[in-house]
Design a protein that fits this description.
Blueprint lengths: L31 H33 L1
Length: 65
């Protein structure tokens, strides 16, 4: 068992890509690949926001050192 404290602002994880064979090829709207694209857009936005928070925290830390 680990006693590690979880990071208070963990880095976002990308969504798992659907298996290429998971598409039924029936023209679903939205297709599983469309849903993955939307999830990737949300992930990229969350990652940019997370990186900005990390950069701000690092800059703040450097000013106090």
């Amino acid at each position: 068992m680990s006693d590690a404290v979880p990071h208070p602002d963990p880095k976002p994880e990308p969504p798992e890509a659907p298996d290429i064979n998971a598409c039924c090829a029936s023209g679903c709207d939205p297709c599983i690949f469309d849903l993955h694209d939307m999830a990737m857009d949300e992930y990229r936005q969350a990652l940019r926001a997370w990186q900005a928070r990390q950069d701000a925290a690092n800059a703040s830390q450097q000013r106090t050192d």
